[in-house]
Write a structure and sequence with these properties.
The chain has helices at residues 3-10, 12-19, 26-34, 43-54, 57-60, 76-95. The protein is mainly α. Residues 11-79 form the UPF0758 domain. InterPro entries: RuvA_2-like, UPF0758, UPF0758_N. This is UPF0758 domain-containing protein.
Length: 96
Amino acid sequence: MGKEELVKWSHPGGKFRRIGPKSCTDAKLLSIIIGTGTKGTSSESIAKIILENFGNFRGIVGKPLDSFYKIKGLKEVKATKIAAVFEIARRIVEDL
């Protein structure tokens, strides 16, 4: 496996595409939504911090945007993406 192939595999999005969503941890799934990390902090590390702060995905649902801003690496755009995804999920569950 070449270096380029290893990078594709190790990135959460690469694992999602190759093995499927069920193979990804909650942190890996959330890191795909986050996209890029910050200098010195990967998107997966930011995702783990979010999950530590909110407990699990259920704990994220309905949280105001400013509750995400205290987490290093999350600003308006990334926090809005996360909130939007969880709002979509909430609406799907509501429609079931």
